[in-house]
Amino acid sequence: MFSDWPSELVPQQGWGDEAAISAFKDAIPWTVGRDFVAGTAKHLAGSLGLTKPGPPIKSKIVHDKQLQVLMPALGHGLSFPLSEIDILRDCVSVYCEWLSALLPNPKSSVPGPILSDPNHYARIIINHFYYLFVPRGAQGPDVINRQAVLCHRVLRTLQNIAQNSPCLSEDTWQTLLLFLLHINSALLSPPTIKVPDESEGAPSSTLSLNFTGDVPEDAGEQLCERVLSVLFETWLLACARCFPPPPLWNALRESCQRWRHRVGLIDQWNRINFALTRKLIGFMYGPSFPEITISEDDLNIIPTNMSRDCIAQVWYRILHIIGNPVDLSRHTVISKTPAFLKYAISSALVIEPSQHPCLQMLPSIFLSAMKGVSGLVDAFLGVPNTSLDNLNQKGRQISPSSSFSLSAECRGEDAARLLANGRPKCNSILHLFGPWLFEAALINCNLQASPGPQHKSDVGSNAGSGSRRPVSVFAGEGSRKSSDSSAPGDSHADRLANLTPQHFQSGRAEALGALCRIFCSKKTGEEILPVYLARFYIALHQGLRQSDPSVSASHHESGHSSSSRSHGIRNGICSETAASILVNGVDLFRLDLQGVVSLVPSVLGVLECVLPEGELNAPSHLPVTLLRRAATHVLLSILPLPLHFQGLQVKEVGSNSGERLALSHLRPQLVNLLTSALQVETDPANTQMLLGGLLFCVQDAALCEVMDSISQHNFSTDRDHNIMSSGASDTVSSHGDYNSLDESCEVLSDGSLGQVGSSNFSSAATSHATLTSATDGEVLPVLEDSDSAHALFVRAIYLVCHRLISSWKSDVNVSLAGLELLSGLARLSIAEQDGLECKRAVKWLCDYIAYQCSRPPRAHSKDLHSTIVAAFHCASVWLVAHPYLLQDKECLATVLEVVELGISGSKSQVKSSDAPRLKHEKELKPASMRVRDSAEALLSCVLSQVGTFPSVCGAESLSSLLDEMTLLRHCNTWGGSDQLTRDTAAQHFRYFVAQNSIMLALLEQPLGNHQDPQPTVTALIRGPFGRVAWTMQLRHLPRHKSSAKLYTVNPGRPLPTNDVGIKHNVKPKYFPESVERIPLCKADKSIPTLESVIMNDEKSALEHDKLLQILDHQIAFEESVRRQVERETSEYPDVETECVAPPLCLEFQTARLLLSHFGFLSLDALQESVESAVPSLVALDSSMAGFARDLDVLDTTNNRTVDTAHIFYVRAGQSAPQDIMSNVVSSSSVHPHFLEFLNGLGWTVNVYQHPGWTGLTSTAFTVTSPPYDGTGPVDVNHGGSGFSGRSHVLYWSDALSEIAFVVPSPTFGQPSPGHQPSSTNNINTVGFVLDQCDRVGGGGTGGGSGSERSDSLPPYDGDVETGSSISSHTSQISYGHGNENKNRKFGRQTSAMSCNDHKVFLVWLESFDDCYTFPANELLCETVTGLESSSWKDKEANVYIIYIHALTNGLFRIKLQGQNAKLNMAGPLVDGQVVSRRVLGTLVRQTALNMCRRRRLESDSYQPPHVRRKLRIQEMVQKYRYEMNEPEFYTHLFTSPLC
Asked: How far is residue 1366's CA from residue 1382's CA, in Å, rounded to a whole number?
């Protein structure tokens, strides 16, 4: 920069007023001069008032001539040896006091001539101060400390004057700066005498020098930091007040280059650079740009009055003041100074200047310089928390951005934004720092292309080979000759020849890390110059192929040469350079870097050194977990490349041969690497990432095979053609291929799992992974057998299930990730799926549940039960997807045993030899209520969904779509004239609740399609798992025989039988005949006769007469009847008594018959028991107000979990909510693959004809008439707005869950579904409109009833008129006549509403940087579903965001945000993962579902859907129950429901 300018740094012998002082010394002898100087200095110092109390004495020096005599003497005194410390102290005191003349308030002891011309005399004093700093040679430590004290005082005085003096002239400034340059040169130019050791900053690779020098420690080592700090700080002050001329800048540059062997120079250089860069960035990029964190002292280094142009000039000049920092790695360059040559000549040992012991500190100095440059790079990238403290950390090679991105805990929004949005372009940073970084990254690298596939690493002595062109030279010819001519026994020669290029690997790694961060900061659409990309790829290739120095020696001695595609030694050792590239370059394959695929072979070789090794030897400063995490990130970004670029052939960097490698041949190697890493990984976060990558591999391979078979037209007609289907193929291959594997699995121990997994599969995969190449033509990609979807499917099940049981069972996050992977595998449609492997998977799941339940009580916790709940859910998914598994008796028995274990807490038969225990013999002690609920859900799934899903109603509904209104309209007795409402329809049904959990709605009127007059009852059965409708008839014959008549029209008269026997007319006697002959006694006469009583009482006589009349009338009537009977029977046959068929009975009490046949009408069933206060059968009063509304609430309490994901499309640079929502109006404004992605999430449904979840409570679970023409198909030209929820949404469901995908868009005149008028008149089937069902009925006495759950329908804030919504688990508010149960609660008294306050956003990004400015909080108002709690707006909502960025190569980059909960990492997608187009929709949907599922697992208040339905029924029992005893209940059965 200043090479054309002369330097003002004159030789030290001609500076410091040497002529005047020499004249003084030559005029008088030494002793006389000493005494004169001592007396003069003591006298002048005594008048200063520093040693004696009292004010200072006014100076008596009034003439310039007096000063011309005294000042040379004082200057001569400053050159005295350190033994005359008192004289030196007095001279320093006098001069320091006299310099106060430059201050606003000078001391009174300052002579008058100095006050009149302070700048002239100040320049003389400053020149004289030079002699104080000149090293005195060999001195003791105490003497040197005394000199240091005086030097510190002088520096403080000069610094104070520079800061506070208002009258410094330009000449004085230049003199001051030259003085500082000269004293620094005097102290710092000579080689350092102090011997470095490991504890004082030398890197670990620096070899210790057990060297004892002939000269003790000098003053330069003590004053180095202080004199340099004063120099730079004063220089900055001069730049602000009197800018130094170019010769001074040239002098500063030349001086600094002579001091580069001093550690303090680089430390001060970094310090000043950081302070200037902070100011520079502040006015270049504004206050919003992240600031560099520096200490409070450094904040004041830059003068406040320094202009922006001046700051920019000074920053650039200071940055280049030490020359090329890479020269610090060349000890021959650093030692080419006069001071080093002088030391070599004067030393007792004649050695080369480049062999001085102090140069052993160069690796540490070089590392410090590279850290400084790296820190400046981070500052310009906007990396938060960039500071000098990070630079000073020993061995720091990880930037804050890398550590944040690799940390599993930093999931917040602030930590996610790693780089500033307004950062400069990569080219700009490379223009500034690129030459240094590229040169440092290529230290000792052979850039000559390798002639063939075999080559050796360039290390150690091979650096200077004639056939290679090294970038830097570490030893000149002279040093090599001196080294060669040294005697073998020369200890100094052995000691000083240890500085090799390998000692600079730490600094080189720092440079590589900075380059990786620069290129990884590339914005979407940003172009990087090809020359920079080429140099970067070469640097990475060289950095990845370097082996550890401790290993490379033995590696080369053995003559072993590594392959060009395996750049590391597979011994678990990772070099510093490779580790730095992995940690700082995790985004290399996630960006649109042109030609980056050529690095895949190089990176793959390093990954094989890091991931499969259980005992990894990483650099000491780098945590092994962090290194493995970085390697995992890189692996996940490489996984989709082989199948995506199947026909692509790449040429390896650095190879000049014609060999090319097909990427598709690397897939077996990648899969083996992934599975091997899973077997040895112990970190939970890394394991979950690997699991996500494993599921991606299996799904990508499965869909790739399906698409290939479709394109080749080689698929069978009975094969499942829908690649998005979650069903399983019925094709089961032969079991013989896996019998041996099954046998080996049974005898495996936990410790041998990894060996079997790697040997059985890795050997086969490796044989197919031969890296073939071709120069002519294109290699056709072929998926080998070991690489097929079926092989990966089996391999994944085997590995994950065994690891779940052996080592993952104690970690909740890893267990959940493994179970999520198994659930994803269950839904895969693979043609060659083996039923035996699926059976093993279910068996392993059951064993996992049994083991977790059997753990000791102290191990039971919420996390443990969460894993059990997730395992039950996973088992349900497997059984629904593979219903044929239940045809296997062993599998069915295993499933039912684990269900029994979950419900009751123990098995009835632990061993097959044990006698089973009956239900009433066991104590009901489940592991927890959550576990019991999950087991009940699995049992219900086995009984009702396995083999029948989807039902005839479709996947949209598990329940029957028939309700009371629909059934009543189809009855024979319904005329259709009256207006039918839900209240009137409910009056025709009888409602009973059985077992306090099953509601029976019985209709005793036959339906219109049943003409046969049989006892018919139609039952709507509402239970915890849904609603079903059954029509039952009481038949004495099977239906196929019912058409035959059971009677004839004229059966014929029977033949008379005259022999009817003898009729005896015998009059019965009540007493024996002898009773009349027995004489009466007095006792008989004691009872008066009837006649005597009647005659004595007139009233009795009248009653007796009436009684006689009645008797006479009755006797006459009986006599007439007897005569009529005799008349009728006397004559035969009689037409009136002819035998005819009885009339058919058309009225049946079928409800009573049904309940009786099922045993509900026994006395025990109608009475309360000890276990329950509610009888087994309870009748409900459907006439009470609010009954129909609560019935609708029960119907809309879904029996599956429901979730909603909102999708947004963000164009480049957008951050306004309205602009983002407007993008989806037209297909021309979205990416071509965006609509394809939407269709991959689910299928399109019309919200008005859809009985399931629609993403909005006002249209969910209802089939209504739209207020406008919204039943037509979706507009084909929309860009996603057709799925806004106004007419259509995207929907997906299975037997256990539902999810709706909504694309919010701006409204253009169409009413929002959330504000549509609703009426019960337009409801045709199951469901209701929320704003009606949540209001209090006319006869109600309480507040509104809601449903606080994630899959039922709670009210909006404005929909509740009085009170608050009640929990689905409680009955806090009663209706109708149930006030006495107002405060009675049931079940767990917690609210499930907290599970509904989370949101899931799917955001498509055109520019990846827009993820940091996405207005998630502003868009929350557009994502209201109606499930939120009343206070969700007042608190911060949990928003889970899945960002999707389409790369130009056709792949998609994923970013996850918001997973900061305890159960944080929901898969299968991983933050930073790159996925293919084939599996994008499936993986995003599974991740969204798993996010919501983990949120429910984490919530303390969540309860499964069937539990909430059960509690709804119990609430209705308490509110509408008939309070009747047994006789009243039986009487109620015989009455009509409308009576």
From this structure: 11
> Can you give the pLDDT at residue 189?
85
1185 residue type, one letter: A
Distance CA 743, CA 739 (A): 6
Residue 1422: the pLDDT is 87
581 and 646 Cβ atoms separated by less than 8 Å: no
Residue 804, both tokens: 């779940």
Distances 267 to 178, 230, 432 between C-alpha atoms, Å: 22, 13, 21
d(C-alpha 463, C-alpha 475), whole Å: 10
- Provide the residue type at 645 as one letter: F
Structure tokens at 136: 């005195």
For the ranges 558-562, 775-779, 1340-1344, 1518-1522, the one whose mean pLDDT is highest:
1518-1522
pLDDT at 911: 77
- When pLDDT is averaged across residues 1052-1066 and rounded to a whole number, the result is 70
Do you know the residue count of the chain? Answer: 1539
Find, among 558, 557, 577, 559, the residue nearest to 567 by Cα.
577
Best CA proximity match to 577, nearest among 597, 559, 552, 553 = 552
- Average pLDDT value over all residues in the chain: 76
pLDDT digits (tens, 9 = 90+) for 606-654: 998 888 876 777 777 788 889 999 999 999 999 999 998 888 888 877 6
- Amino acid code (one letter) for 1182: S
pLDDT tier at 1425 (50, 70, 90 boundaries)?
Answer: confident
Amino acid in the structure at residue 1261 = F
Helix (H) or strand (E) holding 1202, with range, is: strand 1201-1210
Give 3-state DSSP helix, strand, coil % of the chain, rounded to 5.
Answer: 50, 5, 45
Query: Tokens 């710092």 label which residue?
Result: 188
Are 184 and 15 in contact by the 8 Å Cβ rule? The answer is no
**Residue 24, both tokens:** 């003084």
Is a pLDDT exceeding 50 seen at residue 411? no
Q: Could you tell me which residues are beta bridge partners of residue 1377? A: none
> Among the residues of 407-547, which ranges form H helices?
413-416, 426-441, 477-485, 491-496, 505-520, 530-545
> Could you read off the pLDDT of 744-775 as tens digits, one per residue?
333 333 333 333 333 333 333 333 333 333 33
Q: What b/e string do you get for 138-171 counting C-beta neighbours within 10 Å, with b at 16 or more?
A: ebeeebbebbeebbeebbebbbebbeebeebeee
Task: Identify the H or E element spanning 1441.
Answer: strand 1438-1446
Picking from 846, 779, 858, 788, the residue whose alpha carbon sits closest to that of residue 819 is 846
* β-sheet bridge partners, residue 835: none
Phi, then psi, of 1451 in degrees rounded to 5: -95, 175
Tokens representing residue 402 in the block: 């890398």
Please state, in angstroms and rounded to a whole number, the distance separating the CA atoms of residues 448 and 542: 11
Secondary structure (3-state) at 1299: strand
Q: What is the pTM of this model?
A: 0.79
Q: Which residues contact 259 (CB under 8 A, 6 or more apart)?
A: 184, 185, 188, 189, 228, 265
pLDDT digits (tens, 9 = 90+) for 1458-1478: 866 666 678 899 999 999 999
Residue type, 1457: Q
Quick check: helix, strand or coil at residue 1107? Answer: helix
User: Which residues fall within 8 angstroms of residue 1061, CB to CB, at 6 or more apart?
Assistant: none
Which amino acid, one-letter code, is at 188?
Answer: L
Strands 998-1003 and 1016-1023: antiparallel
> Using alpha carbons only, how large is the chain's radius of gyration in Å?
48
Distances (CA, A) of 219 to 132, 150, 213, 710: 11, 12, 15, 82
Asked whether 808 and 752 are in contact (CB, 8 A), the reply is: no
Q: What is the 3-state secondary structure (H, E, C) of 165-210?
A: CCCCCHHHHHHHHHHHHHHHHHHHCCCCCCCCCHHHCCCCCCCCCC
